[in-house]
Specification:
5-stranded mixed β-sheet, 2 domains, 263 residues, alpha/beta
Length: 263
Amino acid sequence: MLGKPDLVKIMKTATYNLKWKTFRELDNFQFKQKDNLENLKIFKSLIPLINYNIKSLSNPKFNIDPIGGKYSFITSVMSSAYKRHGNILEAALKEKLKECNDFIIFNEDKFPITTEAKSKAALYEKELHKMKKIDLFYNETAAKDFLQVDLIVYNKKSSIVSSYELKRGNGYLDAGKKRSLRQDLMSTNFLLKDWMKKFHNISVRAAHSYVISYYGFKAVEKPFSLVRYDLDNHFKFSVVKDIEKVNLFFRNKLHKMIEDKIS
């Protein structure tokens, strides 16, 4: 029978192997791409965003570490690049979904949240399945807070609206961040159906909410969690291939900029 230290060792080894397996798959996938990226519709719309981020990353404000020397630049740039890549992923997914005639895409930087929605989300935070049973009426005067929702998609064929929080998902979130994410997800979902009716005059059959953890480290449990390999089937529309091409372009430009700076 395995003792606790043996189990911990096995788990750590499995996690390590999973990370490198995922990295090798991604690396091989990206560098097999032969398509002309500039012919992609989403690429054209994302050029300004990517170029802006590369330019900003090339001139970071950072302190040179006593032992890091010139490599302090790499640490500073990569830390910022991971965060900026999340915004690029979000923009790439939005632009790709716009190509599907079945979808209407909403950008909502200030989704109004009522006190009742926040209270119920705090109460049921560990019971995400309750989202399917609670639809609250949106009362504009009762909206005391706002949330930035990464993506809202209305499917005209199914008459379903879905909200999404997009995370890179290349590492685990701590307990506090997971709790906050679950509460935000529920607060949005409780009001989403009535929000569509009152703000966009669209009556929907159902409202769903998900967290996309793109690279696989899930922030919430299924069926409320999606990873990269789920997306094409979830949307019934091919999105991942072109998003990966955008990732490749950003990655190559980032690596070249770093190499030029430290050479």
